[in-house]
Write a structure and sequence with these properties.
By secondary structure, the protein is of the alpha/beta class. The chain has one domain (29-242): Bit1, CATH 3.40.1490. The chain has seven helices and ten strands. Strands 1, 2, 3, 4, 5 and 6 form a six-stranded mixed β-sheet that branches. The chain has a four-stranded mixed β-sheet with strand order 8-7-10-9. Strand 4 (107-110) and strand 5 (115-118) form a beta hairpin. Helix 1 (48-64) packs parallel to helix 5 (168-185). The longest helix has 18 residues, at 168-185. The radius of gyration is 16 Å and the shape is globular. The model is unreliable at 1-21 (pLDDT under 50).
């Protein structure tokens, strides 16, 4: 199906990495970044959990898109991105900013209240001007109602570390990393089934009592480099997919 590199964990929003920042050959390769833009209109911001879930599905949608594989128009950029440290940056837009972002090549994914546009990877220092001027900060979001309990037996769940405080933008990138690690770990048949179903998933904060079990379960774990917000080596997300248990 897609190009699947050796499972090295991705790097987080605003140039974080979910692996500890030891040097490896990937550091010597040209560095690329996967841009994500969340729409946050002044009077109608999305719910936080919906934004996290929509960002994760946006990453998966790009990874599963035929343009990202083989001879597709985005395939070379995706391969270059996967061959280096995997970086994701989440920025926000509204009004005319959002309309300009939507005019660039990419995919917009819709949630119940959230809209997230994902773009093919770009060089770390090669941002299009309409994305470069968007703000990284200001992605503080809330849930108007507590999210319903997750059903890990029925659909994938990206479990957030209950001991960490993360901005919505940071958490969106971390959820995207968890989804990507699950995608890499799945066999082809499970990937196809997940894609054909529209990448259903839940993002929830784990119960403190469950977190040690989750991080030692053999499921994909995102570890942060600690460049922003949290300490180096922190486990941020565990990706639980029914096909990985």
């Amino acid at each position: 199906m897609s190009h699947v590199p050796a499972p090295a964990a991705p790097a987080a929003a605003t140039a974080d990495s979910p692996v500890e920042p030891a040097r490896d050959p990937r550091d010597e390769a040209p560095q690329f970044v996967l841009p994500l833009v969340v729409r946050i209109e002044r009077g109608a911001p999305p719910a936080r959990t919906d934004a996290l879930e929509t960002a994760a599905r946006a990453v998966l949608t790009l990874l599963g898109d035929e343009r990202a594989h083989g001879d597709g128009e985005w395939a070379e950029a995706v391969r270059d991105w996967e061959d280096a440290r995997i970086r994701k940056v989440v920025r926000r837009a509204r009004g005319a900013e959002w309309r300009r972002a939507e005019a660039l090549p990419g995919i917009t994914v819709h949630g119940a209240s959230a809209e997230v546009r994902v773009f093919p990877p770009i060089p770390l220092d090669g941002w299009p001007k309409d994305l470069a001027k968007l703000q990284v900060s200001g992605t503080e979001l809330d849930d108007p109602e507590p999210p319903a309990p997750a059903d890990p037996a029925g659909r994938p769940v990206l479990w957030l570390n209950p001991d960490l405080e993360m901005s919505a933008g940071k958490a969106m990138a971390q959820a995207g990393h968890g989804a990507q690690l699950a995608w890499w770990a799945l066999p082809d048949a499970a990937r196809t089934a997940w894609r054909d179903a529209g990448f259903p998933l839940s993002v929830r904060t784990a119960a403190p009592a469950d977190w040690p079990r989750l991080t030692t379960s053999g499921l994909p774990v995102v570890r942060d480099a600690g460049f922003t917000e949290i300490a180096p080596g922190s486990c941020t997300v565990v990706a639980e997919h029914p096909a990985l248990r």
